[in-house]
Design brief:
Alpha-Beta Plaits, alpha+beta, globular, 10 helices, threonine biosynthesis (chains A, B), Ribosomal Protein S5, domain 2, 4-stranded antiparallel sheet, transferase (chains A, B), 7-stranded mixed sheet, 315 residues, 37% helix, Homoserine kinase (chains A, B), homodimer, ATP binding (chains A, B)
Chain lengths: 315, 315
């Protein structure tokens, strides 16, 4: 049994156009790294987080602590852990920052405990981490962060998460304009009722997107990446959103929408070269606008949470 | 060039659970047969329809006439046709009766005119037939009747129809309790607004159904065949609906819902044997209830509208 493990769980794009609260995809390269070790006592200890000293280290408030605790409760275990969080996904970016920490934490603890759960079975524990930060146990970011790929949360009661096949040449370009949009604010402005004809249009696009992904039909993926319900409302919170989207489309993106609750914007492309072109367009646009930003390009991360290395010292 | 052709266009199940107004599938064996011949003048003549003498023969009122006329308008053609309609799909059954006639009519005319259009290009003309009968140019029945298979109407503006892959072992059991539910009545009782959380649940199921179909995951198809928005409202118009559904599920159906606007009820199954078992359960239930009914079992008809035979006399 390992005593210490270093793990990675990717940043994620939730909603992905028409799939509000159901779709998510995992990014490559960007994600949180956690070093987790078994303690000889029952304490969960979270070390101060470098660069994010305002994030809580109290395990009952920190998403990683809450997520691991819910897993320990299920196992009826008193095992203690020490957790070093290297935060690489900026909180409030719309790229699943808290989900990345939650997913990494339960993945690491599960490995150290001899893997009592499958990755899919870890989703509910990671969701508890999400609940600690947003008040609701969302699964749309933690699912792709754990499982990788393009995922669907079909249902919450009972929880039913599904992996959707996707073409290998699907790439993502992301821009994170560094303004703050709190998920709770962003949720509040949504209407509780939608017109039936808008809902029908939305599930038409949901079906088109899944068909496009499963059949590798990039043109259909692009036509279906349309969100007529949430995007028009949330996009007003993101400076330059409409122009940035038009630049992405003019640069060859299949489609473009808001990542999670924003402010990050993502575009899907066929192939890496096109993603680079779109990222350049995002970069130039926000540079000209004078808004600090980061851009990323990424394939779809098929692996999800993973072990970087382990210390194989016997305990 | 043929002068006369005999064609078949299948009956269809629209909506298919969560896909209200977007999904449809084509049945085998059941459908309308049309004999269509070229006339030497510009008249569209529809002969009295055996068994359905109350259906209009005026080509501006009959769905077949309206559909062919819209095609001729697009071609700027004055060609006349004579049409014999052998109606095998009962009007008001919820199995796409008017769509079957409309699809067969435009398919036949297109063949006789040397195929100026692809099958997909025929959809808008067949939709005009639907408009003549229901007031709205629906595509969810005419699309599978023309193209066959399991289809998606992703969007109406612009029209975007898509074929969804499906597993060969997918079967359908249908019961048509012979009571009348008019589509216009059935539409009227739907609410114009839906709660956002219900809409989210619906598009989760839509995504699950497409994923299940594309991956041949029958269990996922069954879990996703849930309609929380339309079925609870429309099912009250169908005597015995809830019990019939429970009997289907107890007999091994993957899922069960209303075909189109009803009153027909369909169930999906894995394999033909299971479809036969479910059809028997439907039959027994409605026999015991004393309601006249018909049952059908069918695979998914992958071909759609087709030529039965042609008279190859030169014109």
């Amino acid at each position: 049994m390992e005593k210490k493990i270093k793990v990675f769980a990717p940043a994620t794009v939730a909603n992905v156009g028409p799939g509000f609260d159901i779709f998510g995809l995992a990014l490559e390269g960007i994600g949180d790294e956690l070093e987790v070790s078994l303690r000889d006592d029952s304490q969960i200890k979270i070390l101060p987080i470098e660069g994010y000293e305002d994030l809580p280290t109290d395990p009952s408030l920190n998403v990683a602590g809450v997520a691991i605790q819910s897993m320990l409760d299920e196992l009826d275990s008193q095992q203690g852990f020490e957790i070093v969080i290297k935060k690489r996904v900026m909180p409030g970016s719309g790229l699943g920052s808290s989900a990345s920490s939650s997913a990494a934490a339960v993945y690491a603890a599960n490995e150290l405990l001899g893997r009592p759960f499958s990755k899919k079975e870890l989703v509910p524990f990671a969701m508890e981490g999400e609940k600690a930060t947003s008040g609701k146990a969302h699964a749309d970011n933690v699912t792709p962060s754990l499982l990788g790929g393009f995922t669907l949360v079909r249902s919450y009661t009972p929880l039913d998460v599904v992996s959707i096949p996707f073409p290998a040449e699907l790439y993502v370009a992301v821009v994170h304009p560094q303004i703050e949009v709190k998920t709770s604010d962003s949720k509040r402005i949504l209407k509780r009722e939608v017109a039936l004809d808008m809902a029908i249009s939305q599930w038409g696009n949901v079906a088109g997107l899944v068909t496009g992904l499963a059949c590798g039909d990039f043109d259909l993926i692009g036509r279906s990446l349309e969100d007529r319900i949430v995007e028009p409302i949330r996009s007003v919170l993101i400076p330059g959103y409409e122009d940035a989207k038009q630049h992405a489309l003019a640069s060859g993106a299949l489609g473009c929408s808001i990542s999670g609750s924003g402010p990050s914007i993502f575009a899907l492309t066929e192939g890496k070269a096109m993603a680079e072109k779109v990222a350049q367009a995002f970069d130039k646009y926000y540079t000209d606008l004078g808004i600090e930003h980061k851009v990323y390009i990424s394939g779809i991360n098929a692996e999800g949470a993973k072990t970087i290395n382990k210390l194989t010292e016997k305990v």
